[in-house]
From TrEMBL:
KW Flavoprotein (keyword) present: yes
Protein keywords: Electron transport, FAD, Flavoprotein, Transport
Ranges for domain Electron transfer flavoprotein alpha/beta-subunit N-terminal: 3-173
Biological process, per Gene Ontology: fatty acid beta-oxidation using acyl-CoA dehydrogenase
Record's keyword annotation contains Flavoprotein: yes
Name used for this protein in its record: Electron transfer flavoprotein subunit alpha/FixB family protein
Family according to the record: Belongs to the ETF alpha-subunit/FixB family.
Cofactor detail note: Binds 1 FAD per dimer.
Tree of life domain: Bacteria
Cofactor requirements of the protein: FAD
Species in which this protein is naturally found: Chlorobaculum thiosulfatiphilum (Chlorobium limicola f.sp. thiosulfatophilum)
MF-aspect GO terms: electron transfer activity; flavin adenine dinucleotide binding
InterPro entries, per database record: DHS-like_NAD/FAD-binding_dom, ETF_a/b_N, ETF_a/FixB, ETF_asu_C, ETF_asu_C_CS, Rossmann-like_a/b/a_fold
SUPFAM superfamilies from the UniProt entry: Adenine nucleotide alpha hydrolases-like, DHS-like NAD/FAD-binding domain
Amino acid sequence: MKLLLVGEVHDGRLTTETAELFGFAARLGAEASMVIAGSVDDLPAFDGRLYRAEGGHEFDATFHKRLVLDAIEREQPDAVALLHSSYGWELAPRVAFAMNAAQVSGVVGLDDDGGYVVECCNGKMLRTVRPLTDLAVLTIQPGAFAAAPMAGSPEAIAIEAAQDAAIEFLGCIEPERGIDLSRAEVIVSAGRGIGSEEQVELVRALASALGGEVGASRPVVDAGWLERARQVGSSGQSVSPSLYVACGISGAIQHLAGMKNSGFVLAVNTDRDAPIASVADVLVVADLAEFLPALTTAIRAR
Ligand code: FAD
C-alpha cells in the first residue's frame, strides 16, 4: 500500500503529532511519502520521498490543496493521510472533493480487513468503514497511533503551486490564549464526573494546594463551569506537566490526545474500568466529593 502523508507545520516547525502519521503508516505496513508546505528547519527522518513547497501561508488551505494534488499526481498513492486537526479538517475535504475520493474522518484504528475504525455518537460508539474509491483521504485522530521512531533520510523533491485564482488569502489572526497550560508543571483537571459548577471548587482547591493550574475536559467547558482556554485535548490545549490529576475524566481519545505527554498521571474515578486507567500511573477508585477534600487537606498539612 502507498500512503501520502501531509505534514503539519506551525510556527516554522513540524507539529509533534506529525510523527504519529508515520506511526499510522507503520501500522498499515505502507510505503510512505510526505508533502510539507512551508519552510521548516526540522525535516522528518524517514525513508521515502519528501515533497516540499516553500511559500504560501501555513494555514492557506487553497494553496496547500494544490500542492497535495500535485504530490498525488506524482505519487499515485492508495490513500492520503492528514491529521484530524483544524488544518486537516479544512484541507481533507478539499482534496477529497477534487479527486472524487472517499473521505474518512477521525481514524482511531484499523480492522484486520482493510477497514478504518472511526468514532461516532460523540465518541460513545465505534464503526468500521471501508472506502470504495481507488483513492481515500483520511484524517487520523491525534493520540490514536503511537509516533513511529524516525530514521532515514528522505529524497527531497521541490514542488511549486500557483495560488488559487478564485480566492485571495489575506492573513490569519492567532486567538488570544489568555491561559497557557502548556508550561504548567502541575495540572488538576475537572471532568464531567465533578458533577456541578460548585464542585469545581474542589478541583481549584487541590490545584492551589499543589501550586498548579486548573484544566478541564470538554463537557465541563461546554457546560460553562470553566473557561474554554482551560480545555485539554484535541480541540483544546496540548499539555505536558510533570503531574496531571484527572478528576472524573473517563479518558476519551480526544482528551488523551492533549495530555498523553504528561509525566505522572493520577486519575480519580468511581469506575475502575474507565479508559483513563490505561494511561494512569495511579488510579484511585473513589468519589471525588470525598477524595479531593481529603487529599487537599493532607497536602496542605505537609
Ligand atoms: P465522561 O466521559 O462523561 O466521563 C465522566 C467520568 O467521571 C466517568 O468516567 C465517570 O465514571 C466519572 N465519575 C462520575 N461521577 C464521579 C464521581 N462522583 N467521582 C469520581 N468519578 C466520577 N474532550 C476533551 O476533553 N477535550 C477535547 O479537546 C475534546 N475534543 C473533542 C473533539 C471532537 C471532534 C469530539 C467529537 C469530541 C471531543 N471531546 C473532547 C469530547 C470527548 O469525546 C469526550 O466526550 C469527553 O472527553 C468526555 O469528558 P469527561 O471524561 O469529562 O466526561
